[in-house]
Amino acid sequence: MKKVLVITYYWPPAGGSGVQRWVKFIKYLPQFGWKSIVYTPENPDMTAVDYSLESDIPQGTVILRRPITEVYDLYRKFTGKKGGAAGEVNPINSQKKSLKQRLALFIRGNCFIPDPRVSWVRPSVRFLKKYLKEHPVDLIISTGPPHSMHLIARKVARSTGIPWIADFRDAWTKIFYYKHLPLTRWADRKYHALEKAVLDEATAVVSVSPMERDDFQQMTSQHIHLITNGYDGEDFDQVIEPDGYFNLTNTGLFSSDGNPLTLWKILSELCASDPVFHEKMRIRLVGKIDREVLDAIRAAGLEDHLVNLGYKDHTTAVREQMNASILLLLLRREPEYGAALPGKLFEYLASSRPILGIGQPDGAMATIVGQTRSGEVHDWEDEQGIREMVLRIWKQYLSGGIPPVGEGKEQFSRKAITARMAALMDEVIEKHSKTEYVKQ
What we know:
By secondary structure, the protein is of the alpha/beta class. The chain has helices at 17-28, 71-79, 99-111, 121-134, 148-160, 185-201, 210-217, 261-273, 275-280, 291-299, 314-322, 344-351, 364-371, 383-398, 414-439; strands at residues 2-7, 34-41, 62-66, 139-144, 164-168, 204-207, 224-226, 246-251, 281-286, 306-310, 326-330, 355-358, 375-378.
């Protein structure tokens, strides 16, 4: 069986979509002839904990954990913040910042390039070079962000000659918050130089979104591969008893810059005009929620309809998706976010519940929702379109039930996308071996 070293910051018991991508790949890779060795921090900064994901890790998977110095610990002490890495869903472009926060952000952007985990690069390279001499692998894969993971892989690949795939779960300098970093010209050039070096030097590069792939492609002559996120059908083998309510459900992070004020207004008006809607409608939120979102729901008079479950494990989140009447997919009000494909989109597809997307109607998310006929995507201010969809689904609910939606979702199953990743892995090592033969 071939062996791959996967370098990732996010790994169980940490929770979230950044963990799930490679946990699910590693779950299915043995079926395609690959055994995984995972390199990850021993003491990462975890914004969420989810032990349920550990059940997906194949028996015999080698997990290498090494200590990391976490700068965010110092950040919290300096700013007085508590909780995850920043105490907020959206710390970098959060509208209100104290003097200490602005200073901390300047230091983060200009002194820790490409991210606050950069201090882990040198000790990791030293450890992995020694480890790989005794435990050889066929391939290295780094997954970011944090993009420091790519810098580790780059140096190890240079030193060992092992082929390397750089997997980008998000954009780098074109990610929505990059423009909010108070960077010097020197720092900005450094970020772009490191990004281009990774794109040029990796044996292969993978992106999760067509639009982000195209952005990367403009920076390098190397072909950028597209392998999206997906859903695991086994996660949806649950029997759900409907709770009898008309549930508008959001799972995952819910940031203040994605706050759907128009939706809250519509729901408030419908509650005021329809006693049955008032009785049955619930807003169910599962995950980490910015304070401004909760404040807006209360300001709209919807507090009695709010069920805020907080962060729950992945199994519970899937159950909530399957119990939804409408699944809310709320994008950030950032132009760059139109290129993003939120990981939960694919699980929403698997739930077969109608999706109400609020964001860029011409973005990557809207394209997939439209192609799979899984719902609708409306602009933040499209009051008529949002209202019409809510009312249409409400009428279905009253008439006996909301029928399943969606078609063609099977292409996004975790097993299907793992097959594509495994094919790329095989291709990379085959080309590498031929190149090495020619050199000899």
